[in-house]
């Protein structure tokens, strides 16, 4: 059915069942493994595991309630019904309007889980014709949600059968390790080396654009396709990779047409229900290995490298500008500048910019200003997007976009999709990029992508035939 926008989303929101059943149980000793086990149970067609701030894991699953937007159309589903509306080429605005109807329809805040594709950026900042016709935004309102903290396990469900399914799974003893095909060091390096020559040429073309004055920086990436067989095991890869990584956020999902297992080094943004907002740009990279002395040498090199410092500083400058566009005057501040953060197989220069939203601005206004993360695009953002469209092969899709958890009460936590195994249809791939400036060399930027791929590639696990 297609109706007026207001009545469309009011009718949809009123059909969404509340999470009426709540139970609290003892904490799980290994929340990452427990969340992965819940995902492996395939309780519904869609699920998402999201590791938030402070080591809190969230598991959400459902089949019935979702919102999906492409460039021209928003589609919502609930209780076997479908509602559609035109977006006027403003899918994020329509997406936010639909989710806000949930807040108006209920007495308490509801959580939603979803993703935003990188190509949404072209509608927000660059050339709308480059956005394509694939879905750009997808969110699920779960039928069951499990929160795993250090002191308790909270289960919220739409009804008793859903609550019982989860309670039974939580009560089961963890099973022994299932055998999975693993990569060898030799095969890992073979995967990582795929496409390096073509990538070096793309870096050279981007440097030429920068010297021509077309832009200041672009984060050029390369896609690393994986063989069709054997198929990657996403939950097993997630658990193995999470054991070895130190992400800001992590996620495991089968949601809205994408599968993903990722270890995000930074957030696009974090918004609290009180209107406090922050972003965490990371730019500037060196390898991080098993030798403490070598790690310290590389850390000192990173802090003294003019190219890396320049790349980081321009990212922080633009993050400040994007925050200031939606925050109260005088509230934006850099609370951390050029710290060094370990992120799996690499170490990064990291800063944090905070502010407080204006009274007339909400979380999706902040998302529209900050998305995609400057550390996944470049400076200026519009010119960088145009350069990426010229020099990268095909759309990015989920890579460089966001995986998020939000609340109808105004909270939004969005992880930048990097260091991620991605699947769609019969394909699976990795992807990595590096910040290209006028001082870049193809050899160094290529090596940086290899360093980043080592955060995921060694932990690939494959389903046994």
Q: What is the approximate shape?
A: globular
Instruction: Give the DSSP E fraction (strand runs of 2 or more residues).
Output: 25-35%
> What distance lies between the first and last C-alpha atoms, to the nearest angstrom?
43 Å
Let me know the average pLDDT.
92
Class from secondary-structure proportions: alpha+beta
Helix tally equals: 13
Number of strands: 25
Multimerization state: single chain
Largest sheet: 12 strands, antiparallel
List the uncertain runs.
1-5
> What fraction, in percent, of the residue positions are helical?
25-40%
Rounded radius of gyration (Å): 21 Å
Report on the architecture of this protein.
The chain is of the alpha+beta class. It is 32% helix and 31% strand. The protein contains 13 helices and 25 strands. It has helices spanning 5-14, 31-40, 91-105, 120-125, 160-171, 185-192, 196-211, 234-244, 292-304, 306-324, 363-370, 381-391, 442-453, and strands at residues 21-25, 46-51, 57-62, 66-69, 73-78, 81-86, 111-116, 137-140, 144-148, 153-157, 181-182, 217-225, 249-255, 258-264, 267-271, 276-279, 282-287, 333-343, 346-356, 378-379, 402-407, 412-416, 420-424, 427-436, 461-462. The strands form 3 sheets. Strands 4, 5, 6, 7, 8, 15, 16, 17, 18, 19, 21 and 22 form a 12-stranded antiparallel β-sheet that branches. It has an 11-stranded antiparallel β-sheet with strand order 1-10-9-3-2-13-14-23-24-12-20, sandwiched between helices. A hairpin with a 2-residue loop joins strand 23 (420-424) and strand 24.
């Amino acid at each position: 059915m297609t109706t007026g926008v207001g009545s469309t989303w009011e009718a949809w929101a009123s059909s969404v069942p509340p999470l009426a059943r709540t139970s609290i149980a003892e904490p799980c000793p290994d929340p990452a493994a427990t969340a992965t086990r819940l995902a492996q149970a395939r309780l519904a067609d869609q699920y998402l595991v999201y590791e938030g701030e402070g080591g809190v894991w969230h598991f959400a699953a459902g089949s019935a309630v979702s919102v999906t937007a492409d460039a021209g159309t928003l589609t919502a589903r609930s209780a076997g019904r479908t509602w559609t509306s035109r977006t006027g080429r403003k899918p994020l605005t329509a997406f936010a309007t639909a989710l806000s109807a949930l807040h108006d329809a209920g007495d308490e805040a509801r959580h939603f889980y979803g993703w935003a594709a990188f190509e949404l950026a072209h509608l927000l900042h660059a050339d709308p014709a480059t956005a394509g016709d694939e879905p750009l935004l997808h969110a699920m309102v779960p039928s069951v949600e499990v929160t795993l903290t250090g002191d308790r396990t909270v289960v919220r469900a739409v009804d008793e059968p859903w609550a019982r399914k989860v309670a039974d799974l939580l009560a089961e003893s963890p099973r022994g390790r299932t055998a999975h095909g693993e990569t060898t060091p030799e095969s890992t390096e073979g995967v990582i080396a795929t496409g390096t020559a073509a990538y070096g040429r793309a870096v050279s073309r981007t440097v030429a654009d920068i010297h021509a004055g077309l832009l200041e920086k672009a984060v050029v990436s390369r896609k690393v396709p994986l063989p069709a067989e054997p198929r990657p095991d996403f939950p097993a890869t997630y658990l193995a990779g999470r054991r070895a990584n130190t992400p800001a956020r992590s996620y495991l999902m089968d949601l809205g047409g994408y599968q993903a297992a990722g270890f995000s080094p930074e957030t696009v943004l974090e918004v609290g229900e009180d209107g406090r907002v922050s972003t965490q740009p990371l730019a500037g990279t060196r390898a991080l290995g098993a030798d403490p002395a070598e790690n310290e040498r590389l850390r000192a090199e990173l802090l003294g490298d003019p190219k890396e410092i320049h790349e980081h500083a321009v990212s922080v400058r633009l993050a400040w500008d994007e925050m200031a566009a939606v925050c109260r005057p005088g509230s934006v501040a850099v609370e951390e500048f050029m710290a060094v953060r370990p992120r799996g197989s690499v170490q990064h220069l990291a800063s944090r910019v905070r502010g407080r939203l204006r009274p007339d601005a909400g979380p999706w206004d902040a998302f529209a200003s900050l998305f995609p993360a400057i550390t996944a695009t470049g400076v200026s953002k519009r010119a960088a997007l145009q350069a990426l469209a010229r020099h990268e092969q095909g759309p990015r899709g989920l890579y460089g976009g966001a995986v998020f958890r939000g609340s109808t009460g105004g909270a939004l936590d969005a992880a930048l999709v990097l260091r991620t195994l991605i699947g769609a249809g019969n394909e699976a791939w990795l992807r990595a990029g590096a910040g290209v400036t006028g001082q870049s060399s193809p050899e160094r930027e290529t090596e940086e992508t290899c360093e980043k791929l080592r955060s995921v590639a060694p932990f690939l696990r494959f389903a046994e035939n």
